[in-house]
Amino acid sequence: MLTHLDNQGRAHMVDVTDKAVTAREAVAEARIRMLPQTLQMIQQGGHPKGDVFAVARIAGIQAAKKTHDLIPLCHPLLLTSIKVELAAEGDDRVHIVARCKLAGQTGVEMEALTAASVAALTIYDMCKAVDRGMCIEQVRLLEKLGGKSGHYQADSPE
């Protein structure tokens, strides 16, 4: 059942007034594939715009905090923790993992997904002059904890 539709089938923000405040957490991931020399440049700190991972981490954190401004019908949330981790994966990928937490009445899945996506987009933006063929892939929810619907754990990718 889609929860953002009212009785007349119109989009609306879900009323969470009567939901209990519980600890909630979500973990999302994204990957960005690039040329090996692009990843090597990032890892060696040779990018003229600075530390690509540091800028992407900050962008992901800022994006999580502003998810309600980006995604219609998302609730503005007071996140208590946002972590964005970036690591080289093989010789041509960056793996991004975003984790968001709060004690609240609604989940933080969209915040974690937004953080991972924006971190990947930031890498693309910073490196597009040297590698326009980068590909952002596998943006997905890995885990969700708390709330009425309980625990969700994604299956391993095949």
Automatic annotation (TrEMBL):
InterPro entries named in the record: MoaC, MoaC_bact/euk, MoaC_sf, MoCo_biosynth_MoaA/MoaC, Mopterin_CF_biosynth-C_dom
Active-site residues, record numbering mapped to chain: 125
Domain of life: Bacteria
Physiological role: Catalyzes the conversion of (8S)-3',8-cyclo-7,8-dihydroguanosine 5'-triphosphate to cyclic pyranopterin monophosphate (cPMP).
Gene Ontology MF: a single term: cyclic pyranopterin monophosphate synthase activity
Record has Lyase as a keyword: yes
Family: Belongs to the MoaC family.
Pathway(s) per entry: Cofactor biosynthesis; molybdopterin biosynthesis
GO biological process: Mo-molybdopterin cofactor biosynthetic process
Subunit structure, interactors included: Homohexamer; trimer of dimers.
Domain Molybdopterin cofactor biosynthesis C (MoaC): start-end pairs: 13-147
Name this protein carries in UniProt: Cyclic pyranopterin monophosphate synthase
The EC number(s) this enzyme carries: 4.6.1.17
Ligand binding (substrate): 73-75, 110-111
Keyword terms, alphabetized: Lyase, Molybdenum cofactor biosynthesis
Pfam families per UniProt: MoaC (PF01967)
